Every structure is written in C-alpha cells, then in structure tokens.
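ok trying this again, last paste got cut off
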Amino acid sequence: YDKVIISIDTLKRDIQYGAALDASYWDIIVIDEAQNVADRAVNGRSAQRAKLAKRLASRSDTLIMLSATPHDGRARSFASLMNMLDPTTLPDPERYDKKDVEHLYVRRFKKDVMAEVSGSFPERKVTQENCMATAAEEEAFDYLTDMKLVMDMHQKRSNSFLFKTMLEKSLFSSPAACIKTIDERVKRLAKKDASDRTGDIDRLEGLKAALEKIGPMQFSRYQRLLQLLRSADYGWHNGEDADDRIVIFTERIETKNYLEEHLRQDLKLPKKAIVSMDGGMSDVEQQKIVEDFGTKSSSVRILVASDVASEGLNLHYLSHRLIHFDTPWSLMVFQQRNGRIDRYGQRKQPDIRFMMINSRNAKIQGDAHILEILQQKEDQARKDIGDPSLLMGKFDVDQEEDFTREAIESGESAENFAARLCIPDEDIDHSDERSGDVETVADDDVFDPLSFFNLTTLDGSDTASTEENESAGESVTGSADDGGIVDSSTLMSDYEYVDEGLSCEEFRQSAGLKSKRQLRDAHGFAVEFQGESPLRAWLRRRVPNTRVLRDNIAEWSDDAKYCEDQANGLLARINDESWSRVQYLWELNPIAEWVGLKASSLLYQRDEAPIIGVTNGNLHADETIMLMNGMVANRHASPVIDEWFGVRYLDGECMGILPLEEVWRITGYRGNLIPGTTERRYVNREDSAASSEQIDAAQLLLEDAVSRGKSMLSDYGEQYRAQADEEVTRQMDRIEHWSHARKALLQSQGKNTKENTKQVDRMLEQYADWVQDTLDASGEPVIRIAAAFVGKE
C-alpha cells in the first residue's frame, strides 16, 4: 500500500513489525498525538512508543508530529520530540531556548485560523448552574467535615490524597459514588482490623447512613439537571429533535450509572434514548456508542460518559450541549471535555453548563469555590493564551489534581488559590483586550517551550512585530517555513473530471459499465456494473466498505452535506457502520485515481502527447507552444528541480520560453477573465482538432524544444547548486558546532566514553550524508512533453 494508517501501539510490536520497518522508507510519516511518543526514560530505559518514534524518524525524509499537548513541562521530554525531527539540533536536552527549536515547531490556536475557517468555531456559551444543598445534603456535609479519621492522621505520603479528601471528591460527584468509596475502604479496613480498634469503620458507616438519606428528590444537582432538561429556556424539548443531543460528563462510574437509570425514568425516555460509556468497555463497544450518538437515524439523545470520552472523540456532529455534572479537579480535563463539542465543524453555539453546589457549610462552600475558580480560569486561559494547562504548569492530569487537592487539604482560600492560577503577562494575547485586570506572575521554575510561540500568527511571524512592520509598510516573514497558499485550481473540477471520464466510450468499455445515470436528489451520478466488471473489482480493494458497491451499483456526489445525510440515514447503516452508499467525490476518491490511470493508458500510448487546437485563446494559426515538464533529481531520486514551462514558436522560430501561467494566459486553457467581469472565458472544446499540417510542423519542433528545455534546466541546475552549496556549508557548520557542544557536555558530565563519542561521530556522519544526498542535484535532466497547443482560425 502507498498509504497506511496504523496505531502506535500496534506498530510498536518489534517482533511483528521491526524487520518490515527497517526495510521500508516513506515519503512522509505523520505521528498523531505525538506527546505519547516523547522519551520519558525511567532508569535509562525508554518506553516502546518512544523507541518506535525514533525508529520511524530515520525511515523518512519528512516527519510531521501533531499534538494539542506536546509537552509535560519537562525540558528533556520536549527535547526528545525535537531530536526526532532533527537529532543534531539540541546538544543539551535540558537547556535550550526559542532560537534552537523555532525552525521545527509551529503552534496554532483557534484564534490563529479563524480567518481561514470563518464560522467553524462559534463562540461557546458557558453557564454555571447553582444548586442549593438540601437538608439531607447539608447533614452529610456537616458529618463529613466534622469527621476525623485515624487513617488520615497516620498518612505519611504528602503526595497522595487524604481519604477524607477522596470522600469529598466522590461526594462532589454523587452520593452513590461516595457510598461506593466508603464500601471499598470498609472492606479493606475490616480485613486488616476485624475489631476496628481505630473506630474509622464506625465513622465511615455513619457517613454512609447520612448519604443514604439523599434520594433523588434530595439530590440538589440531579434535581437542577432535571429542571434544566425540562426548561423551555434550555430548549431541548425532551429530545424531540434528532439533531439536538446532550453529552453529560461525570468522573465516577457510579454517578454515570445513577444518571442513566434515573434520567431514563424521570424523563420517560425510551430505553435506547440514553446511553453511557466508561473505560470498562472495549474499544469496539465505545466506538459503537460514539457512532450511534453521531448518527441521525439512531434513537440516542443523551450520552452519559466518564472521562474516557474526554479525549479524541468527535461528539459534535449532532450535539452542541455539554453538561459537567461534576467539576473536574484538573484544567486539562476541563479542556478535554469541552473539546468534544467545541471543535472544528461545530455548526451551533456550544452550550456548556457546570453544576455547582452552594452550601451553608463553610468548608464545603470554600472547596466548591475553588472548583468554581478552576472553571473560570479555564475559560479565561482559553481566551487569552489558548492553553489552560499553562496556569498550573504541570501538564499532567494527576499532577493538576494534586495541585487542587493540596489547596483543599490545606484550607487555602479561593482568593489565594486564584492568585496562584495566573497567566504570565508575556503569554497573554493583547490583540483583543478585555475589561478588567489580569493577574500576572512569572514562574522561572516552570519550563514552557510553548510560550515561545504563543504570539505566532498564521504566517509564523510575531504579532507585535507584524503590527510594527505593517505600519511601516514592510513585508513580514516568519521563522517557520512560510510558503503561503498556492492556487491549486485545475482544468476541471473533480466532479467534471470523473463524470467526463466515465462518459467516454473507451473508459466505459474498459470499466465494464452497464449504465450511467444522474442522481435524482443531488449533484452526482450512479453507475451500474455488468458481469465481472474490472472497475468494480478494482474499487472493491479500495472503498471503505465493499457493501457500498452492493447490487452492482456505485454512487458518487460532490455534495458533502448530502453524503453526510446519507451516512446518517437508516438505509445507509452497513454492518453496524455508518458508511454512506453515496461516496463523496473529491480528488482522493478511488474513482478519480482510476480515471487518471485510464486517461494515461487509453487516451495516449507511451511516447505520445496530445496536440490541441485553440480557438478562443490568444494563439495565432502560425504559432505553437510546447508544454513541457523538466525535472532534476537528488541522490534519493526525488526531484529537487521540477519546472513546468512552455516553448513558444512562430513559423518554426523559437520566440522564447514561457512560465506556466503565461502558457495558460495565451492559450486560455485555464480560462481568461472577461474584461469588466468576474467570469472566465474558456477555450472552445467543441472543435480542438489540429490540422495534419500543424501536427507535422509540431513534430519537427520536438527535438529543438527538448534541447532548449534541457538547456534551461541546466541553467536552473547551476543556480540551484550554488544555493545548495551554501546550504550544505551552513548545515555542516551547524552540525559541527552541535558535535563539539555535545562532546563538551558529555565531558562535563563525565560521560565522554569511547562509545558515546563514537555515537556522536556516527550521528554527525549520518546527518552529513543525508544533507549531501538530499540537496545534491546530481541527476540528469528529464524532459517530458505534456502537450502542444496550436492556434486555429
């Protein structure tokens, strides 16, 4: 296969895939969720994922790593990712700065791409639902805060929760979750001390008795949830609209089960209208639930999920409502949960609700206020810097929860906690100033390589310097590879290309088509295959599910919304998967590839090219333009020079070499703008046959055109080699500097062993060879005649 998608955890199995990886080389390798392959070696041993990533990094010239959370606050682990991209970048993985990595790293926030995807990120609406504790809840709160556990007095590990804090955390989820926590601990205590000499079991049983008094009517957050779902202002209408579904997040499985059971009863929902998922389910079970939740024809209306659903899932197709039934103690979890519906492709305004408890118990109210601060800070950080994890500087969910736990256990005030959750001023995007003061503080102990890039805009340039330079009328370029956006328009749309190909009689015979018709409800077409159709056999190996070719029929449309609606329709359910019978027609659809293959084999034989008569262009009858492609390859046989151009002749005399855009302008083959309008005038396709005399004349020009093309490529090659030599020299100087710095570091650390020195020399040699082989233009010029254009009266 020329394209492969595979999970890291599958590929890391060395016995199965190691030899195959070492024997393969790829044009591009993309690693998604790249934070999972950072090297966090423990006792000198790297994880299998990190070892695999290092291996892959040497199997391709191009490595792209994608991550929303690319570091854990440790300089070394982030450096491991940079060194996979370029092993000669950082001599010291513990000490480096912006200039060392800026050529390897590009950061994007929603605000950076809003102009490109207008309307794709509706501003979220965040609402705090205040819930007044009932008398039964207040009794349980008072019992909990007054309770003193002997086990907590003997707690020696400062980095772990006091059990009383665990009880409070579970109670903030639900009484059912807290009871489960109590039951499990009582079992453990009873095994250790049957007589309960400490009295902790009795105290816990007393708290359990208080919790058991909190039925659904006394459970304030549950009652507020019911009120919200039934509210006309909320507008959910008990799930009558299949496009309006709700995600409810909770941390504890017991709370999830409680909500699923009672919501189904109290809202009188059908059994399949409310579903739940948690980490105890298999991947297949979880994926089935996600597919049903995003399928319009399914009866699902509410998904109650534990935090297993907070990462990597698309829940936004039919849902813009999310409710945090309990409040996470980690900013990263906040961000992950909200990102399930507040993401690219969301068509409606995300409606996010937080259920917050209000109590007369001062301790409970203070701790609830701390959780409220977390929610507020997550929203503030998202708007100002795009990354709430910078506030705590932990970059790890467990460590963030410890940060919150320490504040609660120490009795820290919410105001002081808020002051510690502050955004360094240098990290704030001031392009959209908001009212009110923003607390700022600098923490030199927190490593944040991402802060280098917080003001990076779409072209990689710094926001402040951009404004200054633009005001001075200067152009601005960024440190990242800033190639800009290229117009990739083609002679035909993808639809026209395939439609015309399948309408060609030679193509139809080769494909084994019985008939072809337009779709009734959309811009598209369907074909029926006959017998053992070669095209159907070819497609079977390439379509996502062979059932889309059932009944010997295939359908395509370039209407993405129509294809999506078909996938969501009941009739499109295939083997419990949501594959649309109508396939989306774009340039990477297999049918477009098939048309291209047939166009090159059926229309023109080897060493043949079309000659096209132009009637509506600016080409005269005695003019000819040879459209040519010229390439020069490096030592890897990859083109380093790849030029399209035209050689223009008048009465057999060469008038010069034209850039590609000039060829299109003169021939009109890409369509020329009609003066005073936005419309384009295209060449006449009805009668484009050249005369026999023109064909003979063009044939005589071939040798001269190829000679001139090679001469031009030779000139380009000289210019390229001069630039390449400068780049090779620069790269060699850089990696020599890296080598000296790396060896000096090893010596200062007492690690300048013979083996370590050899490893540095080996990396230097390998990278130097790669630079030479990649930049060298040693291949012979290759010329291809793509077409000839002649003028017609």
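PB: full thing came through this time. The two ends are 49 Å apart (CA to CA).
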